[in-house]
TrEMBL record:
<feature type="signal peptide">
    <location>
        <begin position="1"/>
        <end position="20"/>
    </location>
</feature>
<dbReference type="InterPro" id="IPR025510">
    <property type="entry name" value="DUF4397"/>
</dbReference>
<feature type="domain" description="DUF4397">
    <location>
        <begin position="35"/>
        <end position="119"/>
    </location>
</feature>
<dbReference type="Pfam" id="PF14344">
    <property type="entry name" value="DUF4397"/>
</dbReference>
<keyword id="KW-0732">Signal</keyword>
<protein>
    <submittedName>
        <fullName>DUF4397 domain-containing protein</fullName>
    </submittedName>
</protein>
Length: 452
């Protein structure tokens, strides 16, 4: 969403335009007369982080995300970054004195280790642009430098132009290779981005086509993905909005793993692709390790250890940078089948995005509660209601201790307790999965499994 700055009338007097053409106009005549501030979170092991100016909260951002653009008074101020811990206590990450200037945007970018982060201030004068844009760029990857190349969409790397070299925390202004004397800025249009190691010509990142369609200042940030696929590079484009356009490497690999949910049967799961033929021999209730493969479409088949149940030629699609978990289970006709969900690519340090899967076919839906020490089912803050059979849903929890309680509610006030776990710590930097599934050894006939 755009903020107040973009609601300024676009009608400008001829005298002001003349002054602007000569490069001189007072801040009172500027299309952007105020000061502007925005926050971007590029710290790969961070929590959701909020931006404060004095005592005023201006919005927050998860990793790879940004706050909105805020219009503020120019002058000296105190900036603070804060997060909320598992006890709902606001914790200060860092603070510093800053100076905000009229007609300028101050983009504060948090990068590096969240325990001792680096805060980069990128300040620039906002300009009124027509059919052009300005490009800034920076690397948020520690201990790595890159050469940045760009080309018009569709062009190969051999026709790309070197823009500049990128290093951690240093913002550069990228110069357009085809600029003319009348306008030094970039022509609006479609481009592709390439990254190489310094001084080399082997491409280590290639973007899809990127549409630079807004007449504004773009800040490009190179970062690493978090979550399961931690070594893939992404390019984020920051403008005056909470919406960040993020572009994965078009040649990046993918990952998958398989969970055998059957309680008394092992199985062999085969995944085949153009140059892939992987087999997993999984025991009952076993979650396999991640396999790294090329992106693409795969054929997945399975057979139980006693050969009584099989399926063949199911499609598994893995796009660039994807990490998926495939769950093998029995459907309502007791036929072997699968469901798949995509793993989170956010940091799993202070907060954890869990995928919850319902494999209980005896009920139309199940309620799942994550109950902390001072809570009951009725007061639990974190819960998933009415999760249908063979469906999955994700939920984000803070690092803490939880009982996981699965219930069926018949909509008449009658609740059936399916299972209640002991108190479990959810605090590891892993991608957790929760499965509600049949279990003949349980008194209720069901169980809840927390799988890292």
């Amino acid at each position: 969403m755009y903020f107040k700055a973009l609601s300024v009338p676009l009608l400008v007097s001829a005298s002001v335009l003349a002054l602007a053409g000569c490069g001189g106009s007072s801040s009172d005549d500027s299309v952007y007369p105020s000061a502007y501030i925005q926050f971007y979170n590029g710290s790969p092991n961070s929590a959701d982080t909020d931006l404060y100016l004095g005592d005023t909260e201006l919005g927050g951002a998860a990793y790879g995300d940004a706050s909105g653009l805020s219009t503020v008074d120019a002058g000296d101020a105190t900036l603070a970054l804060k997060r909320t811990d598992a006890n709902d206590k606001v914790v200060e990450v860092m603070s510093k004195s800053i100076t905000l200037s009229e007609s300028h945007k101050s983009l504060f970018m948090l990068i590096g280790d969240y325990e001792a982060p680096t805060l980069v201030e990128h300040k620039f004068e906002r300009q009124e642009l027509t059919d052009h844009f300005i490009l800034y760029a920076m690397s948020a990857v520690e201990s790595a430098n890159y050469d940045l190349y760009m080309a018009e969409a569709g062009a190969p790397f051999g026709d790309a132009n070197k823009i500049d070299s990128l290093s951690f925390g240093d913002v550069i202004e990228g110069k357009y290779w085809d600029a003319d004397s009348a306008n030094p800025n970039w022509d609006s249009g479609d481009y592709v981005v390439f990254l190489t190691e310094p001084g080399k010509t082997e491409v280590i990142y290639e973007s899809p086509t990127i549409k630079f369609s807004y007449d504004t200042e773009y800040t490009m940030v190179v970062r690493q993905s978090a979550g399961t696929s931690q070594n893939n590079l992404s390019v984020d484009l920051i403008i005056n909005s909470t919406t960040i356009s993020s572009y994965k490497d078009v040649r990046a690999g993918a990952q998958y793993r398989v969970y055998n949910s059957l309680e008394e049967q092992g199985m062999t799961v085969t995944v085949k692709g153009t140059d892939t033929d992987n087999q997993d021999a999984l025991s009952s209730r076993e979650l396999g390790e991640f396999h790294s493969v090329r992106y693409g479409d795969y054929q997945i088949s399975a057979v139980t250890a006693d050969s009584t149940s099989t399926f063949n030629n199911r499609l598994l699609t893995l796009n660039q940078g994807d990490a998926k978990t495939v769950v093998v289970y029995l459907n309502k006709e007791d036929k072997l089948t699968t469901l798949a969900f995509e793993e989170s690519d956010l940091p799993q340090v202070y907060e954890h995005e869990l995928n919850v899967v319902n494999l209980v076919k005896d009920y139309a839906n199940v309620d799942i509660y994550f109950v902390r020490q001072d809570e009951t089912v009725e007061t639990a803050q974190y819960k998933i209601k009415r999760l249908g059979f063979a469906n999955s849903e994700d939920i984000t929890l803070p690092s803490d201790y939880f009982e996981i309680i699965a219930l069926h509610d018949d909509n008449s006030g009658n609740q059936t307790l399916l299972y209640r776990t002991e108190t479990l710590a959810i605090d590891e930097a892993v991608n957790y999965m929760v499965s509600i599934e049949p279990d003949v050894s349980s008194a209720s006939g069901y169980r809840v499994a927390l799988l890292p």
